[in-house]
Amino acid sequence: MSFRLVAWYLLIVGSLFFATGCSGAQETDSTAYVLALGIDKGEQDGMIKYTCQVALPKPSTKEGGEEESKTQVSVTATARSLAEARNLINSSMSRTLTFSHMKALIIGEDLAKEGVNDIFAPLMRFRDMRGSIYILVANGVSAADFMDKNKPKLESFMSRYYESMMFSSNESGYYFRTTLQDFYKELKNVGDCPLATLVSLNGKKKGEDGEGSMFPSEVSPEYTAGNSPLEKGNPAEAMGLAVFSGDKMVGTLTNEEARMLNILRGTFKHGFYVITDPLVPEKFVNLTMRLNGKPHIKIEQMDGQIHIKVEVNVETEITAIPSGTNYEQGEYNQLLENHISQLLQAQILKMLHKTQEWGCDAVGFGVHMRPFFATHQEFMQLDWPPMYRQAEFDISVNTIVRRTGLMQQTVGKIE
Known about the structure:
By secondary structure, this protein is an alpha/beta fold. The chain folds into 2 domains: 219 residues, no CATH class; 146 residues, Nutrient germinant receptor protein C, domain 3 (GMP Synthetase, Chain A, domain 3, 2-Layer Sandwich). It has 11 helices and 14 strands. Strands 1, 2, 3, 4, 5, 6, 7, 8 and 9 form a 9-stranded mixed β-sheet that branches. Strands 10, 11, 12, 13 and 14 form a 5-stranded mixed β-sheet that branches. Helix 8 crosses helix 9. It is found in: Membrane. One of its GO terms (biological process) is spore germination. Belongs to the GerABKC lipoprotein family. This is Spore germination B3/ GerAC like, C-terminal.
């Protein structure tokens, strides 16, 4: 018995010598943390240009009498794979690159249109890559140019900028957050359509119009990133969505179309909504809008034809009525609610018809086809894109003016 106790004692004590440290540990003084990674199409076939935005350990000193505090630096390498590019960059740096704290993956538009499957598969397998990395597509500019010219005015670190920018989508619904895990999951699932936030550098010239067609009841033109009427400040902006069919980008959605997509997905939080005044068209009505529960989606199949019924419930709050019409009460209130419902219905149908042309189910209606199949294997054989192209939509929007701000009745009522 004593021999066994001694043997166990020696075994336990001896095992402690093998648990004294971690062979894969990295010192912070020898590590370069990548905050964002840009991927562009290379000049040669099969070559990819990788741009790493690396955090500096401390702000740089004053140079030339000007105080310029840099907190990151960009390094670019052209290679066939990220692993090869990482080795090339490591050969010119005194620290080892690590992607464990990376916040954003920015893909150039040209590369996105050719296909990103060969890029995403290695990223999902790489241990350093987190599934929470945000996926962005540079619209009209290269990912490298977007990263170099992106100069936030309110944030010192780019990691903080990317996080704040993505969460700001809750205030408008003009785009929404897509992570590496979400994108790859939608890339593999039947009927799903991968999406990514559209970013660009503002290069809109004075006098240029917005994108997309406007309804008579709309006040503001529609825009995508790089075309909004912004001046001064940071030229970088996020607006709209990049839509993929499989691993290839096939088109973009404007800010209003992205908002309608958010509404149908049930991810719209709240935001301002500006429409024309129903009784005084030259004026406008300003509202804050939010969903009153997630949309109700029902799919019916009759003689091979897909019918998609969607019921959307919206509640609004009046924030401005320049015409002075008393939309807070009575028949005027009902008129405004119907006006909002009709405009939302038209905007939703416009967005859906646009995605039908691409054969891309951006909303994810295909998931609701699962009850029609007995097994998962049968569902995986579903050829959904052609069915979605021919689908018929029945969109119903119910609007309630829930609140009227700090005024119960508008001054200067028009009869």
